[in-house]
Amino acid sequence: MTGRARGLLVAGTSSDAGKSVVTSALCRAMARRGIRVAPFKAQNMSNNSMVVPGPDGQGAEIGRAQWVQALAARAEPETAMNPVLLKPGSDLRSHVVVRGRPFGRLAAGEFAGERAALARAAHTALEDLRSRYDVVVCEGAGGVAEINLRAHDYVNMGLARAADLPVVVVGDIDRGGVFASLYGSLALLDPADQALVSGFVINKFRGDVSLLGPGLDALGRMTGRPVLGVLPWQRNLWLDSEDSLALADREHDPAATPVLRVAVVQLPRISNFTDVDALCLEPDLRVDFVTDPRPLASADVVVLPGTRATLSDLEWLRSRGLDTAIAEHARRGRTVLGVCGGCQMLGRAIHDPEGVEGAAGRRADGLGLLDLETVFTRDKVLRLPSGEGLGVPVGGYEIHHGRIRAGRGEPFPGGLRDGTVFGTMWHGSLEHDAFRGAWLEAAAETAGAEGGRFGKVGFTAAREARLDLLADLVEEHLDMDAVLRLVTDGAPALPTLRGELR
């Protein structure tokens, strides 16, 4: 393909319908066909993010999903692929990142004036990508028919209209009501938006696809649009997920006997929970996400992950008695790991003099398991550090406002160690196989469990295999020729549901 870049928008009937998965799959499938393809999401709302090189050579931040989609596309991740990132700090307010850098805060009701600047940033970024790639596969956000937000939308149909993109809508059959969701999503759109909706994809189907035949035919007749494919349900497609809804998809084999049990505290504002994806790949671990103290009693390892609201989540931790349970776990000589916000919670105190997380001057005592203090500053740290830990090379990425001051204890990559309690400000360190293996071997020795079994799974190879699996699925179960025709020719002339079809 040559000339001006083509594009496609992958929208969904709801959050976690499979937009990110389908976008990743299409990126890898097109890349394998020799097409220069890039992913794009105008606005992502997620606390899972990744550091990439910025235009000025400094670190910049994009949604984790777009970083993975860039890997799927075999393209270099960059800020244009996710120009606007909203990181929820509460139910009503989000921190805004534009082209990789902090931009300000946005309240739930602030649409017109504030979002106009965000829309301009998104449209400029898309045009930039389209000038440099053959195809740009765009991902929508939430549900395609969020009619309460349509007036100022620049992520779903607003983006499709502005860029003249054909739209494919993905529905999740596993949650039920997929035909109603697909039909209803189309019916709620105005005629000009409907004209760009060019087909449907059904995701997460279990069973004999022939049983869907009557429904697929009826949906095609009623809407005038084809179902381009039915993707089967597959285990373990959650790797690198950005959506907290996908935490429930992290399944384990109930018949397996784990060497170690890992309890990950599921904080209300959990961020970068992809840090534990590498643990979930270890065949001799059982990893559970927990919200109350009882499972900690039988756990060998407790992980406190990152959070977008360290002080608020620390209050939540105490309100549920998890602070006492974690301290007791450490007192028994069992392993505790805190990552970023979790590391800060393990320290002696947290200070927020400038009000980065809320009211200025807030202070809270930490759990006191590590001799460190945290001070929040307005300037955000965005880095890709590397070094050595536990005798092996290790790296990661840093995304935080809190600066830690470490006291007594052993140095640990990005933080501090005191016996069996570890704290690091580096996300992604467990993706390094040798380092993960060394840390788990130490945890096994502490627990009196069998060692020599960890770090054998290659995390990067597992991710690549997953991306190729996704491409295989769309090549087999999706009409890729029809998808590429949409990319080449745009949306065909199609009827609306307000008229003769009603």
UniProtKB/TrEMBL annotation:
Key words of the record: Cobalamin biosynthesis, Glutamine amidotransferase
Give the source's domain of life in one word.
Bacteria
Q: Where is the active site?
A: C340, H427
Pathway in which this enzyme or protein is active? Cofactor biosynthesis; adenosylcobalamin biosynthesis
Can you supply a Gene Ontology BP term from the record?
A: cobalamin biosynthetic process
The protein's GO terms of the molecular function aspect are: ABC-type vitamin B12 transporter activity; catalytic activity
The UniProt function text for this chain reads:
Catalyzes amidations at positions B, D, E, and G on adenosylcobyrinic A,C-diamide. NH(2) groups are provided by glutamine, and one molecule of ATP is hydrogenolyzed for each amidation.
Spell out the PANTHER family in the cross-references.
COBYRIC ACID SYNTHASE (PTHR21343:SF1), DETHIOBIOTIN SYNTHETASE (PTHR21343)
Q: Say which family it is in.
A: Belongs to the CobB/CobQ family. CobQ subfamily.
Q: Which NCBIfam families is this protein grouped with?
A: cobQ (TIGR00313), PRK00784.1 (NF001989)
Q: What is this protein called?
A: Cobyric acid synthase
